Amino acid sequence: MLKQSNLMSSAQKYENIKIIALDADDTLWVNEPIFQQTQDKLRALLSPYIDPGQLDERLYETERNNLRLFGYGVKGFVLSMIETAVQLSGGKISGEEVQQIIDMGKEMLEHPVDLLDGVKEAVETLSEYYTLMVITKGDLFDQENKVARSGLADYFKRVEIVSEKDEATYREIFGRNGIRLEEVLMVGNSLKSDVLPVCKLGGKAIHIPFHTTWEHEKVESHQANGYDYDEIDNLRQLIRLLNPKKSPALGDREVLIEGRGFRLRRFTPDDISRLAYHANNANIAVRLQDRFPHPYTQNDARQFIDYAQNAEMETVFAIEVDGEAAGAVGIIFQEDVYSQSGELGYWLGEEYWGRGIVSQAVKAMVHHAFDDLGLRRVYARIFSNNVASRRVLEKAGFQFEGMARQAVVKNDQVLDVFHYATLKPEALR
């Protein structure tokens, strides 16, 4: 989630950005796990010579000492592995085993380029509004090859492959390309290389943590203190953060409220299983439109979460209870002359009924609609047999506005629809 919870203020922060510079390894595609898998293979190869616990620290030290000679990348890593193997084995490692290490390096260079979650979508979308470039460090041939094989090359106007990413490097790149510091945003997974150098120059940067980080790229928390940068979970969230289309739902925040025993936050793919579990309930489906399916499968949950993450005219939050997504609440933005109205919808897993969670969630959404989203009116339509929802709305300050007679057919039953609404306090004066 974002370090800054209010995305609307963040969008204003980036309104002058014209160029987005992206790191490559572990920002666009998987990289560090490939190195770790190879290191595991080396540990197994050297097991006749050393205790497995000896390898990691010695290899890191060898890599660190060799950076000024070999630079970053697979080739330097392979040479460091060979040197470490010779040292730890006391020179006993065979030529055949050295060949196996070389073959490990070749496998790394030929490894498929696996794009990270949301990368393709984000790059495609943002390229319509911003000039995109890559600033990455490593071996020139290897990095150029990965960019070409990624399928993303056509979206980038520039690709800068450097030996180091520090303040001097960024200053030189921006100067040489005629890029004004206030118009560029650097995005990457490394605080040390992608974020802090740009922040120290007075520029803007966004951190996307990767689940594993090379030791050389780690920084102590105090080294990042005092610098103004945002943090997001994946590149897809950059669309919501920057909101280039100025769509109302994309300008919304990641976490709405930390409530009593629950919270409202954005859905993630990790919610698929539990969302499907709670939604697969006939007692919930009978109260909602047929677009809420029953039975409710994991594929239904996957499709809904994908929609919720990308919806431009509906802001949707997961109702998280006991650490899992157990329901949803959202507002559908209206258009044309109805643009200051929003339609409220909600549901919660049956095992959590009776705790007052839905009432609190509805009240939070109403306050959010009025205080943050600029709406004047929030309304809800409920089936005439849904007594519980009537109580929820009335507790939240909604007023009954009328009834549409025999307006729906649900499970072969003809029902009236009750219309409830609440207005922004200023609208009542």
Overall description:
- The chain has 429 residues and is α/β, with parallel strands linked by helices.
- The protein folds into 3 domains: 7-29 and 114-213 and 221-242, 3-Layer(aba) Sandwich (Rossmann fold); 32-109, DNA polymerase, domain 1 (Orthogonal Bundle); 255-428, Aminopeptidase, CATH 3.40.630.30.
- It has 16 helices and 14 strands.
- It has helices at residues 7-13, 32-45, 55-70, 74-88, 95-109, 119-126, 140-150, 167-176, 191-200, 221-224, 236-242, 272-279, 282-285, 298-310, 357-371, 387-395; strands at residues 19-22, 131-137, 156-162, 184-188, 204-207, 230-231, 255-258, 262-265, 314-321, 324-333, 341-348, 377-383, 399-410, 413-423.
- An 8-stranded mixed beta sheet has the order 7-8-9-10-11-12-14-13, sandwiched between helices. A 6-stranded parallel beta sheet has the order 3-2-1-4-5-6, with helices on both faces.
- It is elongated, with a radius of gyration of 27 Å.
- It starts with 6 loop residues before the first helix and ends in a 6-residue tail after the last strand.
